[in-house]
Write a structure and sequence with these properties.
single chain; 191 residues; alpha/beta; 6 helices; 5 strands
């Protein structure tokens, strides 16, 4: 979890850049060094529902004051390079659109507006439920899909899933980021 920094009541390029700079070291290409700060792939499941449940719990008990005089705006920014693959019972699910997902018969259908219609994927069901719970509590969730694996052309099921997650989170669509510049631009729009 990276603590958010305000861009101020009247954001400028400099204050937005300073807010985004907090993430820069975490987004560097992965190395094998344990002393560097970039995000490391753990080769584990993606417990997105559990992460969102934790965010809701945290935001229910903590409402940090604004540092810029504006009312505090509570929201979650989920940056992910994958789809929900662990449900709230800690069971593993293969991601939609993947070869293992296809072999295990993991499916989802989506409504015309992009929201989730049906799925047999409990990890996705749990993530959608947690996004809806956050939104019902007044907390929007912005979804950033990071990397080629969640790009519409490369994996339409992943793109549809991230869109459904963004809809459940109250933000309408996910932000694709297939490069560091895309991620910076997406963060500037959100922040």
């Amino acid at each position: 979890v990276v603590t958010m920094k305000s861009s101020g009541a009247a954001p400028t390029d400099a204050t937005v850049s300073a807010a985004i700079a907090q993430f820069t070291s975490y987004l560097a290409p992965e190395t094998n060094s344990i002393t560097t700060t970039e995000i490391k792939a753990l080769a584990e499941q993606s417990p997105i529902a559990g992460l969102l449940k934790g965010a809701k719990s945290y935001l229910a008990t903590s409402n940090p004051a604004s540092t810029n005089g504006c009312p505090a705006q509570r929201y979650v920014v989920l940056v992910t390079d994958g789809l929900p693959t662990e449900d709230l019972s800690s069971h593993a699910w293969p991601p939609l659109g993947s070869e293992p997902g296809d072999r295990y018969g993991v499916t989802a259908t989506f409504n015309g507006d992009g929201s989730l219609d049906t799925t047999n994927d409990q990890a996705l069901t749990d993530a959608i439920a947690q996004l809806q719970a956050l939104y019902s509590a007044g907390v929007k969730t912005y979804i950033i899909g990071l990397g080629a694996g969640v790009e519409t052309a490369a994996n339409p099921e992943a793109a549809a899933t991230l869109k459904a997650m963004a809809i459940a989170g109250g933000t309408g669509d996910y932000f694709p980021a297939t490069s560091p510049a895309d991620l910076t631009n997406d963060m500037q729009v959100i922040l």
